Amino acid sequence: MARIIDGTAIAREIRAEVAAQVAQLRAEGTVPGLAVVLVGGDPASEVYVRSKTRACQEAGMHSRLLQLPETATREELFGTIDGLNADPDIHGVLVQLPLPPQLNAKEFLERVSPAKDVDGFHPNNVGRAFVGDPQGFVPATPAGIMELLRRERIDTHAQHAVIVGRSLIVSKPLASLLMAPGANSTVTLTHRHTVDLAQYTRMADILVVAVGKPGLITAEMVKPGATVIDVGVTRVDDPSNPRGYVIRGDVDFEAVAEKAGAITPVPGGVGPMTIAMLLRNTITAAQRVHDRASRKAKAGAR
Ligand SMILES: Nc1nc(=O)c2c([nH]1)NC[C@@H]1CN(c3ccc(C(=O)N[C@@H](CCC(=O)O)C(=O)O)cc3)C=[N+]21
């Protein structure tokens, strides 16, 4: 039976570390602030956004939620982002995805100031992450997966990591992090056009699945003893559940847990780590502004 990786507990540790850094920054006069822009009322997005703002408050950070109607125009959303880019109380800005169909996400991700882009989705940060420049912001989900592996002492060195999915938010940055010096994995990236997916997944020492198709990965597709990281979060209708739905990952958890060496559950695996790493990116953004201001103040005093 696989060890079940407790993402909730590890995220709690990171959030406690974040809270300590927030306290230090506050003592020096900076309150880290995160702004979340939500357009429309997608029920899953509302849940995520609420957990993000709650996590900020618990860590002693300032958080602001800006809600725009489903019918918001391009100009309205540009205006909202520009306002936050210029607001000195806000260090991190994120536009919750998905956006309604009339709005093209790319335009808005590029509008967020790269210095406040704590999601790491601006091309400037995507590029920095790809070249391994630590000044860039790494997207929270892949950063959270690396942190899970590190804190669970799962060695990535010379291991074969197979990633299923090719998203900009998870798979591409994760591939880059896993193959970087220090992590040293051999990385295979697979996606919907891959012929015979199982042939690849069975070779994985570390299997990461980020597709959003419940049950995609069955036990036969997993090598005995592998580490399985399930990034899927899909709401599946379930009338027997008081909420009317349950959250399912991409992995057939019950069967795969009997074969894998370690596995992340859904919920309670990667999801909570995503939020913890978003907070960490936000304090990094605030720390940079703070350090720049205190250097200036010192130079002025001389
Ligand atoms: N601009 C932007 N940045 C994002 O980071 C972003 C986004 N848009 N759009 C949607 C995805 C998804 N995402 C999750 C965050 C937390 C959980 C999470 O905490 N999940 C809980 C369960 C939550 C529940 O009950 O629904 C868990 O897995 O234990 C899941 C998914 C961030 N995303």
UniProtKB/TrEMBL annotation:
Residues 5-119 form the Tetrahydrofolate dehydrogenase/cyclohydrolase catalytic domain. GO terms for cellular component: cytosol. NADP(+) binds at residues 165-167, 233. It catalyses: (6R)-5,10-methenyltetrahydrofolate + H2O = (6R)-10-formyltetrahydrofolate + H(+); (6R)-5,10-methylene-5,6,7,8-tetrahydrofolate + NADP(+) = (6R)-5,10-methenyltetrahydrofolate + NADPH. The keyword Hydrolase applies. Gene3D superfamilies: Leucine Dehydrogenase, chain A, domain 1, NAD(P)-binding Rossmann-like Domain. One of its GO terms (biological process) is tetrahydrofolate interconversion. Its EC number is 1.5.1.5, 3.5.4.9. Residues 139-288 form the Tetrahydrofolate dehydrogenase/cyclohydrolase NAD(P)-binding domain. InterPro entries: Aminoacid_DH-like_N_sf (IPR046346), NAD(P)-bd_dom_sf (IPR036291), THF_DH/CycHdrlase (IPR000672), THF_DH/CycHdrlase_cat_dom (IPR020630), THF_DH/CycHdrlase_CS (IPR020867), THF_DH/CycHdrlase_NAD-bd_dom (IPR020631). SUPFAM superfamilies: Aminoacid dehydrogenase-like, N-terminal domain, NAD(P)-binding Rossmann-fold domains. Pathway: One-carbon metabolism; tetrahydrofolate interconversion. Keywords: Amino-acid biosynthesis, Histidine biosynthesis, Hydrolase, Methionine biosynthesis, Multifunctional enzyme, NADP, One-carbon metabolism, Oxidoreductase, Purine biosynthesis. Belongs to the tetrahydrofolate dehydrogenase/cyclohydrolase family. Homodimer. PANTHER family: C-1-TETRAHYDROFOLATE SYNTHASE, CYTOPLASMIC (PTHR48099:SF5), C-1-TETRAHYDROFOLATE SYNTHASE, CYTOPLASMIC-RELATED (PTHR48099). Catalyzes the oxidation of 5,10-methylenetetrahydrofolate to 5,10-methenyltetrahydrofolate and then the hydrolysis of 5,10-methenyltetrahydrofolate to 10-formyltetrahydrofolate. This is Bifunctional protein FolD. It comes from Longimicrobium terrae. The gene is folD.
